[in-house]
Structures are given as structure tokens and as C-alpha cells.
Amino acid sequence: MKSNEEVVKLINVSKRYYLSSSVYVDALININLAIRYGEIAIVMGPSGSGKTTLVNIMSTLDKPTSGRVVIDGVDVTDADENYLSKFRLEKLGFVFQQYNLVSQLTALENVMLPMLLTGRYTKDEAREKARLLLDLVSVGEFMNNKPSQLSGGQQQRVAIARALANDPSFIIMDEPTGSIDLASSYLILDLIRLLNRAVGVTFVIATHNMEVASIGNRIIYLRGGRIMQESDLERIKEEFSKLRIDQLAVIKSYLRVLEIDERRLRRLGQDISDIERKRSLIDSLMKTI
Questions:
Q1: Residue 213 within a domain
Q2: Each residue of 267-283: pLDDT tens digit?
Q3: What confidence score (pLDDT) does residue 233 get?
Q4: Is 50 part of any domain?
Q5: What Gene3D superfamilies does this protein's entry cite (predicted)?
Q6: What is the mean pLDDT of residues 162-177?
Q7: Whole-angstrom Cα distance, residue 189 to residue 177?
Q8: Residues 6+ apart with CB under 8 A from 60
Q9: How large is the greatest C-alpha to C-alpha distance in the chain, in angstroms?
């Protein structure tokens, strides 16, 4: 996938919610928007601006009243829920403010679950990859803990590992630091930036938090259901530019994840060019560290 390709495209998208037969609210009005592979796109705006609706439409959790939604080259506007459920599982990653981990499962099992649901991984492959992903987000030692036995920051990192499990086209995040402490917030932001820089993971993040916004390549600012401006936040980015995590440890963990995916793809006789692309990106980043 090339960085100039569009992972999400909204064409003249509007969303109207009817409160009664004659009373309605226009949550989005004629939105035209493209997000490209490798971007960190930040969605901001005051309460009631339409940002939740925009993110829900981009993630196929809601449908527009009018307009078209194209994700990864597929027009999903008129797709039924059975198709969209499978599409979300295979193409999208989700990180919610309240984590949404399965309380009865361990951290390891939570990360394994989306891989097993696709039917593309054996149980051993899913377990091995899940362990590495938990190591990547620095919670590997807690893999056998259930969500209730983890702190908020640890649960959010498990949620990020789960979002990465099926190598999604992009990851949707809703206030990813909204329910965790400051130190954990910095770790989460560092992980997002490093995953984006090292292997080109694409993120769409809805937030009120300017520190979260500072890691974005672009700001999509909504007011009254319309995109008002895309802000340049270079000053804030510089303020929060220093990474606070062990870059080499994270990259080494991700390289091991790529090894698992390469073995699986070779077993299935499938193309490994995306694996090679990610290794090339990592090689380039390593030269700057």
C-alpha cells in the first residue's frame, strides 16, 4: 500500500437524525474527506460538532443519510450488517475510551480472539502473535490477567494490541487517553507515534485533548457538522516530540510479529509484499535511531 493511497474516502456525506417526523438534527453536512495510508488524523470539535458521528461512519458503525463511504477501495455505503461485521473484523481496529475488553477472558485471550474469529490463524499462531503484541505494548508479563486485574493504562495497551491483531487498514481511537493517568497517556501516545513511524500504521483519533492532537499529521476540525479547518500544530508537536519508550524494544517485538505473519502467509500461499514493505520502513527508521 502506498502512502498516497486513500484508506478512507467520504463523498458528500451527510447525516440527519430525526427526533420526530418533523424535528431533526443535521449531525454532518456535505462532508468530503480523504485519509491516506500512514496518516495520524485527529478529529476534533466541541460537543455536538459531529465528530462522534463522523468517526462512527468512517468505522461503518453508522450509515450516512446521503453520500458515499469508501474504505480500502471498497464502497461500503449500501452493505448489509453481515458483510460489515466481517469487514470490520478483517479491516479495522478499534480502541475505545472504556477499553471494551471481554471481562471473562485474559489479556492474552482478548488479543487472540479477533484472530481466531477470522479463521485465518491456527490457535498456536494466534497465541504466539498475541504474546508478541502484548510484549510490544509492554504488558506481556500480565498476559494471564483478566481486565479487572489490570490498571486502566494496562487495559488500554491490551486494547491496542487487540486492535493490531488482524493487521488492520487503519485503527479508530475514541479518546484513547480519556480514562487513564498522565504517565500511561504518554506511553500510549508514544506507542501510536512509533507504530506510525516504524510500520506506517494509520490512525484516526477522536479527541478533545490537545496533547493527543499534537501527535497528528493533520487536524480535522468540526463545528456544526461541517469541517471548518485543518490546523497546523507544529509548536505543540515540538513540545511533546520526545519519545519516552524504548524504541528498539518495540521495533524488535514488531519484527517478531512480522515473522509470524510471514510464516502464516507462506503457509497459505499468499503474497508477503506488505510484510516486506513494513520491514523496509523499519530499516529506514532504524537508521535514524
A1: yes
A2: 999 999 999 999 999 98
A3: 46
A4: yes
A5: P-loop containing nucleotide triphosphate hydrolases
A6: 93
A7: 8
A8: 69, 71, 76, 79, 84, 87, 88, 92
A9: 61
Cα distance between residue 256 and residue 130, in whole Å: 11
Q: Is residue 18 part of a domain?
A: no
pTM: 0.85
Distance CA 117, CA 32 (A): 33
Per the structure block, which three cell numbers stand in for 89? 473484523
Distance between CA atoms of residues 64 and 47, nearest Å: 20
What's the structural domain count of the chain? 1
**Element (H or E) spanning 198, and its range?**
helix 182-199
What's phi and psi for 178, nearest 5 deg? -70, -25
Q: What is the CATH number of the domain that holds 118?
A: 3.40.50.300
What beta strand segments (E) does 92-212 contain? 92-95, 170-174, 203-206
| Rounded CA separation 211/190 (Å) | 11
Which range has the worst mean pLDDT, 19-28, 194-203, 234-243, 264-273?
A: 234-243
DSSP state string for 228-288: EE----HHHHHHT-S--S-HHHHHHHHHHHHHHHHHHHHHHT---HHHHHHHHHHHHHHTT
Grid coordinates of 268: 497459505
For residue 172, being part of any structural domain is answered with yes
